[in-house]
């Protein structure tokens, strides 16, 4: 079985690490599986790309498309035009796609046009907001896929409602696999990472902000920074800043409190260490909402909706939008209430990669 894995953005590198490790294990036992990795170059900075390949031991890509930054249409088109020859040359049994990026969409359309079976990991997620480019990417990819691997029962139900029940498989969340593995590893680095930023356990806030709906809307970005500036008067905030976000803040001369500690984008081990040890997470990241839940860290999400509805239902995540008052009010709620600890079995048992490969093998034998 030949698998062509297409990845291009930070969250995809993390997800791919778990499955690539399992494929490598199988290759040692038998020579009947091959993975070819295509890196689209959607994320290309060292801090957003290379560090994850090294730290997570992901096999290096056979192809790097080096598409770089561009508008959604141009970036997607660049990936498709470069990917077509690769797919025709390699003739994989499956094109394997992760998540909801432009790399995912481009891979799905290209493979579908060339009549290559598509397997979509993290399928069935819906925010029900088609103003988000990620939502369009998810929907199109799910509807083109032969196999949709769902992380939750909610995702499975979403696909059933869209007439995709035959393609859907409930396998759990692959990010939980990798979180379990690297949580143990990160324990050896916790003190070093906290000392680096002069932070104390459960006595700081971790914040990220990168989505276009917040960074490209100056009013939204100013609301988020205003809330952070106010909250930083009580607790220091560590803010690993996305390159695009940094440019916009500098260009518009948005003032940050002296208690907000800026850093470069974090490696995976740094990220999960800070998430585990933070008092609270402020974010617009989909993956980090979920990781915070794995580590029983309360989360405030400055978006208007979330695809990770389970985190909200359990009370561990409050969705506020880019509204300064709502963000501060949510922080006050978490500061007062006693939080429950939830087992992450909502997102599977940590064996998602193994389940996916078993299903792929069975399906390819049909």
What features would you describe in this structure?
The chain has 366 residues and is an alpha/beta fold. The protein folds into two domains: 189 residues, 3-Layer(aba) Sandwich (Rossmann fold), CATH 3.40.50.2000; 161 residues, 3-Layer(aba) Sandwich (Rossmann fold), CATH 3.40.50. It contains 16 helices and 13 strands. The strands form two sheets. It has a seven-stranded parallel beta sheet with strand order 3-2-1-4-5-6-7, with helices on both faces. Helix 1 packs across helix 16. The radius of gyration is 20 Å and the shape is globular. The model has no long low-confidence stretch (mean pLDDT 92).
Tag the structure with descriptive keywords.
Rossmann fold; 16 helices; globular; seven-stranded parallel β-sheet; alpha/beta; 366 residues
The helix-and-strand class reads alpha/beta
- Beta-strand content bin: 5-15%
* Total domain count: 2
Please state the second-level CATH architecture of the largest domain. Answer: 3-Layer(aba) Sandwich
- Average pLDDT confidence is 92
Strand order of the largest sheet: 3-2-1-4-5-6-7
Radius of gyration: 20 Å
Tally of DSSP β-strands: 13
Would you tell me which CATH topology of the largest domain applies? Rossmann fold
Assigned CATH superfamily of the largest domain: Glycogen Phosphorylase B
Query: Outline, from the CA principal axes?
Result: globular
